[in-house]
């Protein structure tokens, strides 16, 4: 167990262990239960500083936190990267986009408490960020062959291994899952035929990718109005997209491949300066330095986090904001057993929480915050069902990374 340190920020502690808010509230720090306070003040405030403000002994408080973490782990908590095989102990596994994880966690913790009080049952769940699992959990999933090895409910993000050939053959072809989403879904998504035609994936939301440009750094160049425009030679090494350590986001690469083919992959690699987490992109933009790249492919959620948006142009290219899906798999045999849980996950209340966080929901009764997003680009089920997605991702990665290194991309 990683112990709590007094130099950790409040945001870091409560992001990793949201259930610790109960202890914070008991010691006069209830303000961090509010999302706006946690997101604005939490990253800046160290634990030791917060405790001194309310005259609480650091040593005793940290002991309480550490013990609570131990107790939580004793109930069966584990990290997915360390023990992916233990997912079968869970009722719910959720791998979420970073911006969605915190509001989801808060809503789930509230629901879990009510669920336990009402039913006497404990909801065994694990919620983690989707980042990094492409090369850990999702790689492991390519080797899983038995339905018993899976949780009853899996929420995942991006075009991951659930779309790969092994999972298709071992699970989807046997129709082990059922779509429990509303039909028709929210008109924002109904318009792009987002629902799974086979009735197995329950599509919950989309992480929308847009283009952000720093106006003063564009050097007189016109702001691109299409995704294809950033492939031009004039934008070599001018763009940042999500990625790290030689891995780049398939939520970007696959749509660009669909639109512009393998030659488009080479051109995109030439345009990319570096791969970075979206939160780091926001920091680069907010730094107001003149030595950062001028263009960023990033989630709409993070674009809304830029402090001074008067300096930037947030563009939804003519093809549309790229939809990186957030989807759910519910075992058909567990449908009745988990109905209360899935009713919550597919319900209007959670849909409103998701939409408020700039993750538009498929719930038909919720108004999504898409005033500045006039069109969506979705890969489509024909492409996903008739392509060996796993093999294609490997081919794209090989071509992209080779060109990225040739054209001077920063690792």
UniProtKB/TrEMBL annotation:
It comes from the Archaea. The keyword Transferase does not apply. SUPFAM superfamilies: Periplasmic binding protein-like II, SP0561-like. Keywords: Signal. Residues 4-57 form the DUF1858 domain. This is ABC-type Fe3+ transport system, substrate-binding protein.
């Amino acid at each position: 167990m990683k112990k709590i340190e007094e130099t950790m920020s409040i945001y870091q502690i409560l992001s990793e262990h949201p259930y610790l808010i109960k202890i914070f509230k008991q010691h006069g720090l209830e303000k961090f239960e509010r999302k706006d306070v946690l997101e604005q003040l939490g990253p800046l405030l160290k634990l030791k500083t917060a405790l001194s403000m309310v005259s609480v002994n650091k040593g005793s408080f940290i002991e309480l936190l550490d013990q609570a973490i131990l107790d939580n782990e004793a109930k069966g908590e584990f990290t997915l990267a360390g023990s992916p095989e233990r997912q079968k102990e869970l009722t719910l596994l959720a791998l979420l986009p970073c911006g969605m994880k915190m509001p989801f966690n808060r809503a789930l913790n509230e629901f879990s408490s009510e669920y336990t009080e009402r039913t006497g049952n404990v909801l065994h769940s694990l919620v983690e960020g989707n980042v990094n699992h492409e090369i850990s959990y999702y790689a492991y999933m390519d080797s899983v062959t038995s339905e018993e090895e899976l949780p009853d409910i899996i929420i995942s993000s991006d075009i991951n291994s659930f779309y790969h050939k092994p999972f298709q053959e071992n699970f989807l072809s046997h129709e082990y899952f059922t779509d429990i989403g509303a039909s028709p879904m929210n008109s924002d998504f109904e318009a792009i035929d987002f629902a799974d035609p086979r009735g197995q994936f329950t599509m919950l939301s989309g992480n929308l990718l847009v283009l952000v440009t720093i106006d003063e750094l564009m050097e007189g160049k016109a702001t691109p109005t299409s995704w294809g425009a950033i492939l031009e030679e004039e934008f070599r090494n001018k763009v940042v997209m999500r990625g790290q350590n030689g891995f780049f986001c398939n939520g970007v690469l696959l749509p660009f491949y669909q639109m512009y083919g393998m030659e488009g992959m080479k051109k995109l690699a030439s345009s990319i300066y570096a791969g970075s987490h979206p939160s780091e992109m926001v920091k680069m933009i907010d730094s107001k330095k003149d030595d950062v790249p001028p263009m960023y492919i990033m989630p709409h959620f993070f674009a809304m986090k830029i402090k001074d948006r008067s300096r930037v142009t947030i563009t939804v290219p003519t093809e549309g904001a790229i939809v990186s899906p957030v989807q759910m798999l519910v075992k058909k045999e567990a449908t009745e057993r988990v109905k209360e849980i899935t009713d919550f996950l597919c319900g209007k209340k959670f849909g409103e929480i998701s939409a408020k966080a700039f993750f538009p929901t498929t719930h038909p009764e919720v108004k999504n915050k898409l005033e500045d997003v006039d069109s969506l680009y979705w890969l489509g089920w024909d492409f996903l069902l008739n392509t060996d997605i796993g093999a294609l991702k490997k081919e794209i990665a090989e071509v992209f990374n080779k060109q990225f290194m040739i054209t001077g991309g920063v690792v």
